[in-house]
Amino acid sequence: MTHTLFDPIKIGSIDAPNRIFVAPCTRLRCDKSFTPVPMMAKYYAQRASSGLIISEATGISQEGLGMPFAPGIWRDDQVEAWKPITEAVHKADGRMLCQLWHMGRIVLSAYNNGKPPVSASATKAPGLAYAPDMSRQEYDTARPLEISEVPRVLDDYALAAENAKKAGFDGVQLHAANGYFIDQFIRDGSNHRTDDYGGPIENRLRLLGEVTQRLIDIWGKDSTHVRLSPNGDSQGVNDSNAVDTFTKAAALLDSLGIASLELREPPLDGTFGRSELPPIAPEIRKAFSRTLILNSDYDQKRAEKEMAAGVADVISFGRTYIANPDLVERFKANASLNQDVMKTWYSRGPEGYLDYPTMGE
């Protein structure tokens, strides 16, 4: 059976009224202490007619967060600042996950008292990082995470998951994509370890499984979700056999019983990131029996095509949702869409954040 974008769907503990989800999009509107600010409540509430909102990536620890003005959820004051946001979404009859984020080697030492970032191996990301003052500089070379440190990192994820409960979220999504910490362990281009967390695919997936299980222990299977980015290079992280690696990752997550798996897979002709590999979602669909969410470069026509083909259960929209808070209503009416303005994605204030008009406006 195939479905339309407007059909409801039950995803674990969440009853979503449609299959048009808000993808996690970093927006950099927090304060300098990585604490959410009041205008974020309006931003997310504006998008509450979506089937589900996945929050912007949210740091689980100071060690794991290296993006200025991004949110965290490891401190009590951050938890308190998130509460009005989830309350606003619920008041608008919406649903919201907290995406849990550790950036690994993408964190500059300047964010962590001069200490080098941790990763699977001693590698360095290509390109330039955002420093705390928003200037650009080269990444630091990461140090390999010691096996003895794994329990500490698992505890960081657990604390963030507990805090997400206190903050009023409806579940959590593990950010295991886009070349960040978990992804750095999954792929052999960045994981050069020879211990139990490196080498064969099963070893490289070990941390993914352990972190996911800790989240399940806190939230339950029905409220735990994961995001992967299987096809091609992401921030210098790649894999020599992505199809095998990520179908096995999907099978592992399926065996753990998570509620949904979201895949960010830019197409070969992508408009914001391109991949040298076509999306491998059709292969992952065979390995993952629960809700599969596809993301990246979807418009309504392409989304409906994927839904009709039975590959996707849900489509999540990023840039389109930045510019169209009433995207569900616009799709239903076949209305024109606002175009997002790239220069205000991260502009810090309400411009390009709260001022995109709805159809009624």
Structural class: alpha/beta
Question: Which overall shape is indicated by the principal axes computed on the Cα atoms?
Answer: globular
**End-to-end distance, in Å?**
37 Å
What's the helix count? 11
Radius of gyration equals 19 Å
> What percentage of amino acids are in beta strands?
5-15%
Number of strands: 15
**How would a crystallographer describe the biggest sheet?**
9 strands, parallel
Q: Mean of the pLDDT scores?
A: 96
Low-confidence stretches: none
Helix content: 25-40%
> SSE string, helix = H, strand = E?
EEEHEEHEEEEEHEHHHEHEHEHEHH
Q: Keywords for this structure?
A:
361 residues; two-stranded antiparallel ribbon; 11 helices; alpha/beta
3D architecture notes:
- The protein is of the alpha/beta class.
- The chain is built from 11 helices and 15 strands.
- Strands 3, 4, 5, 6, 11, 12, 13, 14 and 15 form a 9-stranded parallel β-sheet that branches. A two-stranded antiparallel ribbon has the order 1-2. It has a two-stranded parallel ribbon with strand order 7-10.
- Helix 2 (76-91) packs across helix 3 (150-167), helix 3 runs parallel beside helix 6 (206-219) and helix 7 (242-256) packs parallel to helix 8 (281-287).
- The longest helix has 18 residues, at 150-167.
- It is globular, with a radius of gyration of 19 Å.
- The model has no long low-confidence stretch (mean pLDDT 96).
